[in-house]
Amino acid sequence: MKAYLFPGQGSQFVGMGKDLYDNNIAARNLFEYANNILGFRITDIMFSGTDEELKQTRVTQPAIFIHSVIKAITLGETFKPDMVAGHSLGEFSALVANKVLTFEDGLKLVYKRAMAMQKACELQPSTMAAVLGLDDAKVEEVCGTITDMIVVAANYNCPGQLVISGSIEGVNKACELLKAAGAKRALVLPVGGAFHSPLMEPARVELEAAIRSTNFNTPICAIYQNVAAKAVTDVTEIKNNLVAQLTAPVRWTQSVQSMVTDGATDFIECGPGNVLQGLVKKINKEANTASA
User: Do 159 and 283 touch, CB atoms closer than 8 A?
Assistant: First the structure.
């Protein structure tokens, strides 16, 4: 069975999608449609901007979404997923790919999400850190001992790699304690804020209103959402999980394990980069991985 995976923030690179734009008329039309929806030429930044320009949340999120979705659409008849999943932002790409959202509605929600997250980051300085070489349970336990600051497990990427998120003081304190508890590394990441933590609550509230007023269709196959880490097909449940996602952890390890349990053998990454293929291999060595 085939599982199509859609990447999140961090997979972007300058030049992403340019080959599709240059060589496929249908893709070019969609890229131009995206420029019109957003009201600025995001393709200029994607194809020939600087790393710094591309790294801005308000650019990164729609850029990765646009590239991922157009890649899926241009696969045409060969795109036959048995299941889909997306890492954080990638969940929106997955929902367009499996026909729950239209391209336009998906892009509008992603841009709204990016702007709301940017605003939440500016409200309170916050950050994230990658913790390597510790069991998930140990990381959760250590974060749980810090009660006077905000720090939580945010991204369960693969066994031995968990990202924590919270206030700058909370994350720094957790990094010290985690190193003392045996972590190989606890490394603060160059991100704009504490994604997938309670500090994203203002963004969650803003995005919820937009999600509730957007039409969602019945999916063509199950989506394994970050919050649920299991097959979801019910439209109301999909919406609820999407709203919860901003302040809840990305349970990627558990999602991939669920897909394997449900019969997935081939994991195809659809979008820029190959980060998710690497994570899948660390979660299940037997899985076949490829780029779309």
Answer: yes
